[in-house]
TrEMBL record:
Transmembrane segments: 46-70, 82-106, 118-138, 147-170, 176-194, 215-236, 286-309, 366-397, 417-435, 442-459
Domain of life: Bacteria
Subcellular localization(s) per the UniProt record: Cell membrane
Record-given protein name: O-antigen/teichoic acid export membrane protein
Family matches, as InterPro entries: Poly_Biosynth_Transport
Principal location class: membrane
Protein family membership: Belongs to the polysaccharide synthase family.
Pfam families assigned to the protein according to its UniProt record, in alphabetical order: Polysacc_synt_3
PANTHER family in the cross-refs: LIPOPOLYSACCHARIDE BIOSYNTHESIS PROTEIN WZXC (PTHR30250:SF10), PST FAMILY PREDICTED COLANIC ACID TRANSPORTER (PTHR30250)
Keyword annotations of the record: Cell membrane, Membrane, Transmembrane, Transmembrane helix
Keyword rRNA-binding tagged: no
Membrane topology classification: Multi-pass membrane protein
């Protein structure tokens, strides 16, 4: 496979992954807005608590071995089938555990309804075990078009069901049905679109080999998931479900956008890096391109969203959600740094150094626990700000191993992102000042968005930013190739 073909396949995969993430999350975003206007913050807080426990359990199923399957160059049917049956077995154990722990968890958080909701919502663990292998096959072969079809189709149907139930007055159960039906439909559609089928093959030797790499990723993912959700657990216990609802809604907007953009890039980046793991220079080039490109896109979106936070929340979610505004602004700053985190970590994993990855996660989580402990007495907003502080420090921690692994220095990394950051800050200051003109809130928001786009793109073009030029050139090349094929 020549370099041009590889580049074409990577870019094509990235586009399909962006469409898949953007399409499904876009629909989910609309559903969330509709449901937020129909349901109470307390009901969203309840579902957040349930999701935390399922997410933690899901790490044991969807992390570690799946990543090892993608990272291993010569993984075959025995590897995939062995992991599949192991995942189903683990899912069964986890479901039984959550089923019997549900009453205890409900009592601890003083939420009686949590028991039944958790028991039903935990069924998604089985779907996750099944489609995690299907997704690994898709990722391994960069066939993200199939994932786009399954995810978008499932989201449309499940979203419709959730909204209809909310209008009918089913409350929190509308969220439960939406999540359950979405995972079920994704699994069914992938069954027909992905050729892989489990066979009656199982090898402890293969599991042991994959476990040598995967257990470190698993533990790292578990630590990360526990840490991310620890703040929510403290807020849910120490304050109220409503406060947790505000915290979660404030995090959801920036997380939704960044996970779509940056997550799509990283989903394609990991298998691509793994295929070039023997060429350090090539790995560095890919990591650098990922950081530059995702920062150029993510920075202005996050700065812009923080600048328009209040009118955005008031118009989209209504006045009852305004306490979420400070959370939203803090998380915009935190998630803006994701491109730096994930690109560096993907490089470490792709080079097979999951041992370093694990050490980094342990160190960062210990640091995070200290920051959480310090911030708890000062309230939920202080706890959110603590997440931002840890995020800043983590950019240096995550980049440190790559100083030697791929010779990508701190000075080089910051030199790559500073131009986009400066332009974003300038754009954000102008956008924020527009609110003082005195227009209606809706018109102000529209003008802010338009002005922000024009200023950022205009400055990038005028200053001939390398990333802007790269994106424009790549887009033109793709259009030419498409016309050539059509002709």
């Amino acid at each position: 496979m020549n370099s041009e073909l590889t580049k074409a396949k990577v870019i094509s995969s990235l586009i399909w992954k962006l469409l898949e993430r953007g399409g499904t999350q876009g629909i989910q975003f609309i559903v969330t807005i509709v449901l937020a206007r129909l349901l109470l913050p307390e009901e969203f807080g309840l579902i957040v608590l349930v999701t935390i426990f399922i997410t933690i359990a899901g790490v044991f199923i969807q992390s570690g071995f799946n990543t090892a399957l993608i990272q291993k160059k010569n993984s075959d049917e025995v590897d995939f089938s062995s992991v599949f049956f192991l995942s189903l077995f683990v899912a069964s154990l986890l479901y039984i555990g959550l089923f019997f722990m549900a009453p205890i968890i409900a009592t601890f958080f003083e939420e009686p309804q949590l028991k039944t909701v958790l028991r039903y919502q935990s069924l998604t663990l089985f779907f996750g075990a099944f489609n995690s292998i299907q997704i690994a096959v898709v990722s391994k072969n960069l066939e993200f078009k199939k994932l786009f079809i399954s995810s978008l189709g499932a989201m449309i149907i499940s979203a419709t069901a959730g909204i209809m139930m909310a209008y009918a007055g089913f409350g929190v159960w509308s969220l439960v049905v939406q999540h359950l039906s979405n995972q079920l439909l994704v699994t069914i559609i992938l069954w027909f679109t992905v050729k892989w089928r489990p066979t009656l093959l199982f090898s402890f030797a293969r599991i042991k080999t994959l476990f040598a790499f995967g257990w470190k990723v698993l533990v790292s993912s578990l630590l990360d998931t526990l840490y991310i959700n620890l703040t929510s657990l403290f807020i849910g216990k120490m304050y109220s479900s409503a406060t947790l609802g505000f915290y979660n809604r404030g995090e959801q907007f920036p997380k939704l956008i960044v996970s779509n953009i940056n997550g799509s890039i990283q989903s394609v980046m990991f298998p691509t890096l793994s295929s070039h793991q023997d060429n350090i220079k090539r790995v560095k080039d890919i990591v650098r391109r990922s950081i530059v490109t995702s920062s150029f896109i993510v920075f202005p979106v996050m700065v812009g969203m923080a600048a328009v936070a209040e009118p955005l929340v008031n118009i989209v979610l209504t006045e009852k959600w305004l306490p979420a505004v400070p959370f939203l602004q803090i998380f915009c700053a935190s998630y803006a740094l994701w491109p730096i985190h994930t690109a560096n970590l993907q490089a470490i994993n792709a080079l097979g150094r999951s041992d370093i990855f694990l050490k980094l996660e342990i160190f960062k989580k210990l640091l995070g626990l200290v920051v959480i402990a310090i911030s708890i007495p000062f309230g939920a907003y202080a706890m959110a700000f603590g997440v931002f502080v840890v995020s800043i420090i983590s950019t240096f921690i995550n980049a440190y191993p790559n100083l030697k692994l791929i010779d990508y220095r701190y000075r080089e990394q910051w030199k790559d992102i500073i131009p986009s950051l400066i332009l974003s800050i300038i754009m954000g200051m102008v956008v924020y000042s527009i609110q003082w003109i005195g227009m209606t809130e809706a018109l102000t928001l529209i003008v802010q968005i338009i002005v922000g786009i024009v200023i950022y793109i205009g400055l990038a073009k005028a200053l001939r930013l390398e990333c802007y030029t790269y994106l424009i050139t790549t887009g033109k090349e793709m259009l030419k190739n498409k016309k050539r094929k059509a002709g």
